[in-house]
Fold this sequence. Notes:
mainly beta; six-stranded antiparallel β-sheet
Amino acid sequence: MPPPKRQNLMVIGDRVLIEPEDKEQRTQVGLYLPQSVTEKEQVQGGWVVGVGPGTPLPDPGSSEDEPWQRSQSNPKYLPMQVEKGDYALFLKKSSVEIKWDEKKYLILPQSAILVILRESLNSDDEEESGLDFL
């Protein structure tokens, strides 16, 4: 019998894989969530551990008249704003819970993310993100 193959968990489309944070009034990164939010569990935080390639875009060279002909070009995607390692606050009702390697994760569309916190490497990153007012 051959040895078991290692399986990889791949996120597709505009989905994000998040390792949820334990529910507390204050998040690990220092954000305070109002009691009304934590009681109703509308908003939750967690660390982004995987992202999909983005939203698939239609091939501008394809012909709608001949759908049986396959395009030979590689698919193009609208890139994701969120990256691995970001801390995200998101709408919990939009997420799906899974277990992988005995750990709990949430899968959700990027559109369910309300805000992200990202470590800034230098001041140029802040200017590019448009968050220089914080």
